[in-house]
Every structure is written in structure tokens, then in C-alpha cells.
Amino acid sequence: MKRREFLQKSAIVVAGAAAAVSGVAVVASADTNQWTAGLKTLNAHEGETLLKVARQIFPHDRLGDSDYVVVVMDLDTQAGATPDTAKLLRDGVANLDSDGNGKFATLSDDQQIAILQKNESTPFFQKVHSVELVSLYNNHAVWKKLGYQGPSYQIGGYLHHGFNDLNWLPDPPASASPKPA
Amino acid sequence: MARFDSNDDSVVVIIGSGAGGGTLANELCQKGFKVVLLEAGKHQSSATFRNDEWFAFNQLAWLDKRTTSGNWQIAKDFPNLPAWTCKTVGGTTVHWAGASLRFQEHEFKAKTTYSDVTGANLLDWPVTLAELEPYYAKAEFKMGVTRTNDIPGLPGNNNFKVLYNGATRVGYKTVHTGRMAINSRPRDDRSSCWQLGFCFQGCKSGAKWSTLYTEIPKADATGKLDLRAECQALQVQHDSQGKATGVLYADQNGKHVVQKAAIVCVACNSIESARLLLNSSSSTFPQGLANSSGQVGKNYMRHTTGSVYATFKKPVYMNRGTVMAGIVADEAELNVKRGFAGGFEFETISLGLPFAAAFLKPGAWGRDYTRVLDQYPNMAGMWIVGEDMPQETNAVTLNPTEKDQWGLPIPNVHYDDHPNDLAMRNYAYKRGADIYNAVGAVQTIAVPPYPSTHNLGTCRMSESPRDGVCNKWGQTHDLKNLFISDGSQFTTSGGENPTLTIVTLAIRQADYISKERTKKNL
């Protein structure tokens, strides 16, 4: 109960932060392998490890590392805001390395998943999961890659942009679904 | 906006500006009453709403901490968020999807109709459908409900096309785009629906009825409304004769203010309405205000819900257009052969990607889960809404240890699923999957209930003061100038979305208050 409380509280608090961070310039350096230079509180090893964790929690082949870097940056921001969070993340990374007898980040997918399954009820895992849930899926770049179109107000809604364009089933009769005005 | 003196004891104080409180405020202002409308949340508008699920959730939802207990899955998945309701001017009418269905005749007589269901604290309503029909008609006209008053239905979106084809293929007959308080044509100075797809996030086109931009400005135009936003009611006060005298609230600066009142109406949504009465206990009313029956907070209902989503080979884009775009009504009928009492509807539902990720399987991770999310564009969704059984032990109580920012106990919400609820949900999951399988679903997903938006029954109506909190007018049995004006007065939940009935009862309550005032009974 306690851990879940923590998780849910985090999810709510994080929402605002994620909305602010999503899609910012931080991503630009992601493909150059220099992205860890942007970390303010966590070190490069912790960042690299969390990047792997974030990938294993919500793995999407259509997403690139840059999308998961946004998650790590949000974790770094939270670590900078509260020392408890920084400690939770640092200790969590150290624990994953210890479970992996070395560097978690260099293990195979199967080995990483097995270690995460073992740790899934820890506050560390739940913290990363709850932050990532908002940070990853509230990122407009991710929306585009996963096919979510998001806001429609700026185009006047979907009324003239495909709200009823499904064509692989027959249209319902007008008695069930009247034509638009 | 009118401003009444805090010592003016001729005003009606209404607490909460949603479907019940916002409607009641307008109805009373139109009749010449002076109304102070207290709202805990901020004043937003269509201009400040955003098509963004997390932003809107933080902007509009009631996020003050609550605790939960019981065997419902919410207590595991969302232990501090039992309900998804709003703290904003307009209350949960900002968030609601617009489905506006009348209750059926037998649903007002649940005890008589379902007989004795073990463990259920059933009771007949002290009011019948026939008595409410003229008020249902007024509510439908006021809200511009489609398929009433010669208002055409809304055009169905892609999500509805999937539901319609699947449902008719498995033999359902009553499948259409519903009775919705969303304009299908411009009406009441509001535009028709733009099919934005963000009904839950506050309607930016204003096509969806909300007290925020209908009842409240109309009340304001009378010069009789004093709306006080960001004012959190803390206690309803009373005198030694057992008459409510006013309301203590914390204003936007945290300053405590007592507003005197001739009449007090509580419309804070079922969790907060019960909590307010319990937090208003005194030496005269040690169990809480209006609680001589002991039923305040009890019989908490939240409808039997759940969702079924399905993925298909081809695109659906359920996110486009109205969230509740259509309904299957066949299962709403009285039919005990299914193995449970009460009925339910299927209504389309959609979530954007951020909330789909959060709600489709709370806590899930890994490839099995992301494979589903990868199919987001090819996904259709439906929601189940059915009658749940009132149980005396399902209750809003005061948390014995945790306090809020004003030092008052926070609410705990206890809910155990009744075997009847589980039987209905499991049946509905199966039939919902049948609908999608009939049109070639690749995978169907049974999704557990979200935090409750339909919160009902914690101050229920009853004929006898012994087994309920208020009478057929919402007037509390114990204090004649204290009224319950929201869904907490529901004796049982019915199988339909509650807003239309809340509005109906508010219109009727205003008539009663006016008549009783004229007769000097209030």
C-alpha cells in the first residue's frame, strides 16, 4: 500500500514537470552519445543505466534512445529537487549492477528483464516506472511515432479531419448515426 | 456578480457548482433568491482548457489526498485517487462525457424489483419515475439532450462505427449515438460539436453542456448570484433549535469566513458531501450533521464499470471525436436470467495515448504491454456502466489520523465489490469482447474500473428518517433548511449515467424550496 501510494503521488506531481520538459532541446544531443553531459545530478553511468531500465520498462521498437533520454532527464531533474530521490535512484542503479555482477547496462535483454522482474516491487523500480509512464507517453515526439494525434483544437477538431473516415466497416444507418450538420 | 454580506442571513448558500449545485443556483436565482455559491476550485473557461490529458487532469481534477480500503481494485491501483471528479467552477460537468439517460421505472423501486439481494442495503426511492418525468423533460430541454426535443443525434465517429457493426452483428438492436448533452446543432448560444475528442478535459468548443458556461452565467445575469471560487467549505453550522445557520469556509487566502444563510444546500459530490456533514459534528449532532439515521457516508455507490478495448488490423483512431460516441442499450433492461440484478449499458470510450498507457493495465510494464500500446491507432474502446448494489459497509468515513491543509480529517473511501457487481462486470466483459470479435478483433483487453466519476448514495433519500438522510425533495430529515443537492441523495444507483437525474432533482428541489419559502415553512 505504501509503495503504491508513493507511486501514485509521484505520477501526479510529475505530470506537470513532464509536460514542461517534453520535447525540449535536451533531446538534440541524444544521438551524439554526449547526452549524459546534460545530467545535472546523476552521473553518466547512472544515466546510461537508467536509460536501459527505461527502455526495458516500456520497450517500443519505433522509439529511439532520444525518447528515453527525456525520461532520464526528468528523473535527473527530480533527483536534483529532492536528495531522497537522488539517493533512491543511485542506490537503485548500484543494486541493479550488483544483481548483474557488474554493469547492468551491458547485460543482454533477457538478463536485464530478469533482474528488473526481481526488483519490480522496489520503491526504485516504482519510481522509475511512474515517472516514465508520464514522461514517455506525454512526449509529443513519442505521440507522433506511436500514431497518437493529440490536440485537435488548433485544426477546428476532427469534424473535418477524419472523425468518421473509417472505411473497412459499413457506415451505420442515419437513424443510428445522423449525418453531420 | 452580486456580493452579499457575510451576515446576510437571507441568502441560500449552495456548496459546490457542478450538475447539482450549479443548476440549483440558477433555478433559485431565476426565482428571485439571493444565492451564495461556494466552489472549492478555480474558475477556468473554454479558453483556458487544453487538449492535453495530464495538463487537464492537474488543472481540473480533485487531487486532495484521500485514502481507500476494501477489496476493489482501485485500492490497489490508485490508493489515493478513488475518484476522478473535479475541483473547478462547474464541478464534474467540466469533465463529464455528456451521456444523458433517464432512469427506468423499476430502478426507482430496487428493493421491490430485485427483492432481497444478500448483503445489499436496497431501498425503494421515495419518488417515482412518473413524479420525475416533467422534471426530466425540463432537464433535457435545458441541457439540449440529443434525440429529445427534436434535437438530432450526433454523427457517429470511427469508434462508434466499430461498436455499431459489432453490436448489431451479435444481435443487439438498440445501438445509436446516444442521448447526449452535446449540441449536434448550434443551440443556447453555444456551437455544435467540433469532434475535438477531449470531452474529459473540458470542452473547448462549448458544445457540451456544463454549468460553467450555461447555468452559472445565466444565474449571474439575474444579479442574484454571488459565486465565490477557491472557497472550501469546512463546516455547516447550526443553532440550538436544530436549524442550519451558515457555512464556515476557507477563502482563497486561507482566511476563515462564516457566511450566514437561510437555507444551506450541499452539492460537493458524494465523497465531499458526506465528509462535510461528518466534519460538522457538534454536541447536538455528535455523529455528524443530518446523521440521526447513521446513514451519512454509507451505501457509497460508484456504478459497476470496466472497459473493453480491442485492437484491429486496420486503423480506428478512437481519439477522434466525442468520447462517448454511442451506446448499446439492450442490456439495460430488467432481465434476471443473466444471473444478476440490474442492467447496464455499453458506451464507447476513448483515451489518448498518455491515459491509455496509465489506465489500460495499471502498473504493467514490459513487451507484452507495449505491444498493445503499439497498436494505439488501431484500437477501439467501450465502457460498461451498470447498477451496483448499495452496501452499508461501503462507506465514506473520516480518516482517523490524516488531516488536510485546514486540519480536518480527510475522507477514506471503503468499497467491496458485491457478488452481483462482479457477476455483472464479468458478463459485460464477455459480451463486450463478443462485440469486438464479431468485427475481427485481433486482441480484446478487459480493463479494470478507473477512479470513480460516478459517486453516489452517501446521503440517500428515504421515506423513513430511520434509514436515510433526506426526503424525496433532498431535504434532510433532521434539519429542515439543510438540503442535499447532488448524486449523494440517490437511494440506489440505477444503471444509467447520473448527471441527467442530478440536474432533474435540482430543478425539482428549487421548485420545492420556492414553494416552502412562500408558505413560510423555510
Map the helices and strands.
The complex is a heterodimer of chains A (181) and B (522).
Chain A: H1 2-21, H2 44-57, H3 65-81, H4 83-99, H5 109-118, H6 123-137, H7 140-146
Helix pairs in contact in A: 1-6, 2-3, 2-5, 3-4, 3-6, 4-6
Chain B: E1 12-15, H1 19-30, E2 35-38, H2 53-60, E3 67-69, H3 74-77, H4 110-114, H5 129-143, H6 158-169, E4 175-176, H7 215-221, E5 225-228, E6 232-238, E7 244-250, E8 256-260, E9 263-266, H8 269-278, E10 304-311, E11 327-328, E12 344-348, H9 353-359, H10 367-373, E13 379-386, E14 395-403, E15 409-414, H11 419-437, E16 443-447, E17 482-484, H12 499-518
Parallel strand pairs in B: 1-2, 1-9, 2-5, 3-15, 9-17
Antiparallel strand pairs in B: 4-11, 6-7, 7-8, 10-13, 10-16, 11-12, 12-13, 14-15
What features would you describe in this structure?
The complex is a heterodimer of chains A (181) and B (522). By secondary structure, chain A is mostly helical. In chain A, 55% of the residues lie in helices and 0% in strands. Chain A is elongated and about 65 Å long. Helices cover 24% and strands 16% of the residues of chain B. Chain B has a six-stranded antiparallel sheet with strand order 4-11-12-13-10-16, covered by helices on one side. Chain B has a five-stranded parallel sheet with strand order 5-2-1-9-17, with helices on one face. In chain B, strand 7 (244-250) and strand 8 (256-260) form a beta hairpin. At the A-B interface, helix 1, helix 6 and helix 7 of A face helix 2, helix 6, strand 4, helix 9 and helix 10 of B.
SSE series of chain B: EHEHEHHHHEHEEEEEHEEEHHEEEHEEH
Percent range of helical residues of chain B: 10-25%
Name the chain pair with the biggest interface and residue counts per chain.
A-B, 59 and 66 residues
Over the alpha carbons, how many angstroms does the gyration radius of chain B reach?
A: 22 Å
Biggest sheet strand order of chain B reads 4-11-12-13-10-16
Q: Strand-residue fraction of chain B?
A: 15-25%
Shape of chain A: elongated
Whole-number mean pLDDT of chain B: 98
Query: How many runs of DSSP E, i.e. beta strands of chain B?
Result: 17
Spell the H/E element sequence of chain A.
HHHHHHH
